[in-house]
Amino acid sequence: MNRETTTHDDGGLDLGVYLALLGLTAATLAASHFTHGGRIMAVVLALIIASIKASLIGFYYMGLRRERAMMFIILGIGAVAVGILLVGILPDLTFARF
Amino acid sequence: MQAAITMNADWREDEGGRVGLWLFILSEILLFGAFLASYVGTRLGNPDCALGVAAWPEAGHLPGLTMAALNTLILLTSSYTMVRAISRAERGDRAGFRANMIATVVLGLGFLVVKSAEYALKISHGYYPGSELAKANAGLSIFLSYYYMLTILHGLHIVAGLIWNGVAYYASADAPMPSVARRAEYAGLYWHFVDVVWVFLFPLLYLI
């Protein structure tokens, strides 16, 4: 077992992350209330908060903060690919006339 | 010398397993990412599907949202119990590992039960592709197709995660603790990823 990269022994930190995730879930619900009617703002805000939550889970629960650079390269490929897909729809949203 | 060779072999197996698992997670990111990008583009770019919060028309919206929020709480809690299970396994605490892993499995099953109740609620209100309600509203029909496709795909991943967790629990009865810890870590990586997917699905399907 590679203890250097896999040990999960931060009991208090894990609980803190859990409470932060619950708080961010409440923030997601609140944000959706305040952005009612503004679809693009609602989507952007929802994605930002979800990304923060995903980062917390990734770094602390999945142990990314202790992983080697290779894992970040693997994840980076996924993030770039999904980013291209999301950004790729912008021209259509900007210029399309319905 | 022999000990060094054995430790090196263990390290390679452990490292190889984790890299393989992260590559698998990459493939899952691409799968869900493609569907979610398509969904966001459709919702933003097509006024017929620009339903906003009214994606779930008033009848049944609040109970459905409550169930989805409850499922968010369940999955986040299950991620916390999974972290505790891995931590206990790495410390050699077999009983602690088993208690936390069974809690994770029970919470996962709870997620599926709540999801089933939510499906029943939506179907009772005619919120499914092909219903009279959906036929009368093209935007709703598109949205419902995405909703069921994404949530069922996620649900299948929950089932796979439950099987994985169940195997890790079953095998922990008499396996050496280093082996239990390794299985727990792999199962945990997958389970946390399934949680991350729901973190994105929840606001995109229920709150915009």
Task: Sum up the structure in keywords.
heterodimer, A: 98 residues, 2 domains, 79% helix, 0% strand, flat, B: Four Helix Bundle (Hemerythrin (Met), subunit A)
Write a structural description:
Chain A has five helices and no strands. With 98 residues, chain A is mainly alpha-helical. Chain A folds into two domains: 1-67; 69-98. The longest helix of chain A has 24 residues, at 11-34. Chain A starts with a helix and ends with a helix. Chain B has 208 residues and is mainly alpha-helical. Chain B has a single domain (2-206), classed as Four Helix Bundle (Hemerythrin (Met), subunit A), CATH 1.20.120. Chain B is built from six helices and no strands. Chain B is elongated, with a radius of gyration of 20 Å. The chains are: A mainly alpha (98), B mainly alpha (208). At the A-B interface, α1, α2, α3 and α4 of A face α1, α2 and α6 of B.
Q: Assign a percent range to the helix content of chain A.
A: over 70%
What percent of residues of chain A are in strands?
under 5%
Alpha-carbon distance between the termini of chain A? 57 Å
Overall, the morphology of chain A is flat
What is the typical, i.e. mean, pLDDT of chain A? 80
Radius of gyration of chain B: 20 Å
**CATH-defined fold name of chain B:** Four Helix Bundle (Hemerythrin (Met), subunit A)
The quaternary state of the protein chains shown equals heterodimer
Helix share bin of chain B: over 70%
Q: Which structural class should the secondary elements of chain A be placed in?
A: mainly alpha
CATH class of chain B: Mainly Alpha
User: What letter string, H or E per element, gives the SSE order of chain B?
Assistant: HHHHHH
**Total DSSP E strands of chain A:** 0
Strand count, sense and closure of the main sheet of chain A?
none
What pattern of helices and strands is seen along the backbone of chain A? HHHHH
List low-pLDDT spans of chain A. 1-5
Radius of gyration of chain A: 18 Å
> How many DSSP H or I helices of chain A?
5
CATH architecture of chain B: Up-down Bundle
Number of DSSP strand runs of chain B: 0
What's the number of domains of chain A? 2
